[in-house]
Every structure is written in C-alpha cells, then in structure tokens.
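Predict the 3D structure for this chain.
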Amino acid sequence: MEFYLLPLLGILSLTLTAGDSDLPSEIYWNSVLPNTPMPQAVKNSLRPGVSKGGVSVSTGHEEKPGYVGVTKAKKPIFFYRYAATEDQLHADPSVALFFLEKDMRLGTKMNLDFMKNTNEATFLPHQVATSIPFSSDKLPEILDQLSVKPESVEAETIKNTIIDCDRPGIKGEEKYCATSLESMIDFSTSKLGNKGVKAVSTEVENKSQTLYRIAAGVEKMGGDVSVVCHKMEYAYAVFYCHKIAATRAYMVPLVGRDGTKAKAVALCHTNTKEWNPKHLAFQLLKVKPGVPICHFLTQDQIIWVVSK
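Done. Predicted structure below.
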C-alpha cells in the first residue's frame, strides 16, 4: 500500500516523472553548495517514488490502507534533555553508543551497530512540504492530509515527532526541524555560512559487521561549532537539525573483523552541563554532567561543518 499526495500535487500543479536525472532539490543543493559533495544520507532520503503523477510514501504494509510508513518510535538518544528510558538502559551494554574522547585512538576495539536504517522515508518536493502544516496545533489537519486515523499508532508517532520539534532546545542549542532538503540547507548555511561548508555522513561497507577497531587516519573536521541533522520518524523525511557549540567532529576510519571498512563520523560534546543528569551517556559511561561525551553518527544522520 502506498500513500499518494495527489490533492496537494494537483493544487500546486507539480509534475514529476520517473527517471528525472536532476530533481529540483538536487539543483538547489548544487546552486547553494557547488563545491560540497552530497553525502549518502542525503541521497538516500532525496528521491521519492514517483507513480501515476503523484509522490508516494511507501508503507511496507499492504493490509493497512492509509498507513504511511511510520512506526512507534523510541525516544532519540540525541535529545539531551531526556533521561534514559528503560529500553535504553536494558540495551546491550557492549554496544558503544557513547564513548570518551580519550578512547578514540589507534587500535581501540568497539562494538558498533551500523545496521541498515529502517526509516526509508524520503523528502517531499519543497513546494509540497511547505503546503502541509507542521505544528502541534495543526495535528488534526495534518492527520487528515496524510490520511492517518487519529487513534492509530502512526498518529501517535507523528504527534510525538511534532511535539519534539516544537519543544525548545537546551541552553546553547539552536534547533529546527527540516521538512525538505531545501529547508535543511537553508538552516545549516544560515548558522555556518556557505563558504567551505562540508556535509558528511557515516558510510559503511558491511552493515552486518559490528566489531571494529579504529584504524590510522582519524581526521578532525571543522571548528568547534557544527550542525547535526537526525532523521525522525514521520510520514515523509523530516530531519531534526541543531546547531551545537563546543563540539569537535572527527572522521574515524574503522576496520571490521572481516576486513571491511567504514568511515564513521564521531561527534564529541565538550560541554554537557545542560544535559539531563540521567541521560543515557552518563549512565553508560558512569560519569557526571560536564564531562566531554562522544558518539558516532548513524548512517541516516548528517553533520555540517566548516572546512579548516
């Protein structure tokens, strides 16, 4: 079952055809960031399925008409205001969700889960995305436009994502939920400028490999300010982007036990005083707020930095 935004497309007189070599979003990227390669995480979210003249959001469940491919989401670990949930606390403690910067050295072995992301939502065209409301007070209208039943699990997930997007960030955090690639570009460049901006995502050869060691060539990227965009559970691609000061970003080469390689983005937060004292990172690493905390970005997350 697929969900078609035909009414919106009709209103906007927007026509897309399968096989387009350059979507408008790609053209916009190249016009604003001509010297910035598009990371794989953006490419994976860029090109929607096109069928019968409408942009579709695949559901993966043929038996549920109107279902738009969102599932009950866990609270993201990058929300620093939240305490760890019971599910997070009972997760495999050997998986390196967070680590200390001193451990990012040649030869360090880490158990990392780089499994394929199950959130396959894609960006809508900018004109369509901006025509759909995206705020808590417009939830009934949103559910109606997306053909989602108000009492469904999907509706609850949509509501929670919007609430998280509406909620203010912690002190020193500037946040924005991008509902199109164009809005992601605009937010990131408004915070970092567009000269020397680099967008990067984690790339992995073997997504089933979990045991890695850090190889030679760890590279620091940019200065002490970055913008990170995390993909949210929603009916179409929505990224929670936030500008974070007091950070250090690294590209970390990894080699798996089977010899396969990965280039993983690591982000170290040098000031964690405003985080929830019961945040998962503090509990896993047995440290207190204020201690620098590092974590790898998953394959569907994007970091924006200014090249040195």
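The longest helix spans residues 153-166.
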